[in-house]
Amino acid sequence: VQLVESGGGLVQPGGSLRLSCAASGFTFSSYYMSWFRQAPGKGLEWVSKIRSSGRNKDYVDSVKGRFTISRDNAKSTLYLQLNTLKPEDTAVYYCGRECNIATRTCDYWGLGTQVTVSS
């Protein structure tokens, strides 16, 4: 199993980024997938999750209306569209497979991609 995030970078407040998580080594279409983030000096925070079919999605309140999770099962890729970015969105963003939101654990994680929101 391998999860590889990409798409992070430096962006000004109000800007946008699209994160990707390329999955391999398992049947991607069979699994819930999630995004988490960890801001400097803070703990891991769950951001969003999507059902295996892509029909059910959920978000932490702080990103609702600004972030959109999606997936392409044919490409085994998970996405997170980040719009109207704020400085407090600065964090390392991780994708995870089959995650327990309450315990902030997943059976597999990527290595993360850095998002920095600054003017």
Q: What percentage of the residues does DSSP assign to strands (E)?
A: over 45%
Unreliable sequence segments = none
Shape label: globular
Helix content: under 10%
What kind of sheet is the major sheet? 7 strands, mixed
Q: Report the C-alpha radius of gyration, rounded.
A: 13 Å
How many beta-strand elements?
11
Kindly report the oligomeric state of this protein: single chain
Output the number of helix runs: 0
Helix vs. strand class: mainly beta
Q: How do the helices and strands follow one another from N- to C-terminus? A: EEEEEEEEEEE
Kindly report the average pLDDT value: 97
Question: What is the straight-line distance between the termini?
Answer: 37 Å
Explain what you see.
The protein starts with a strand and ends with a strand. The chain is mostly beta strands and 119 residues long. Strands 2, 4, 5, 6, 9, 10 and 11 form a 7-stranded mixed beta sheet that branches. The protein contains no helices and 11 strands. The radius of gyration is 13 Å and the shape is globular. The chain has strands at residues 2-6, 9-11, 17-24, 33-38, 44-50, 57-59, 67-72, 77-82, 91-100, 105-109, 113-117.
Write a brief caption for the model:
The chain is mainly β and 119 residues long.
Features:
119 residues; mainly beta
Topology:
Elements: E1 2-6, E2 9-11, E3 17-24, E4 33-38, E5 44-50, E6 57-59, E7 67-72, E8 77-82, E9 91-100, E10 105-109, E11 113-117
Parallel strand pairs: 2-11
Antiparallel strand pairs: 1-3, 3-8, 4-5, 4-9, 5-6, 7-8, 9-10, 9-11
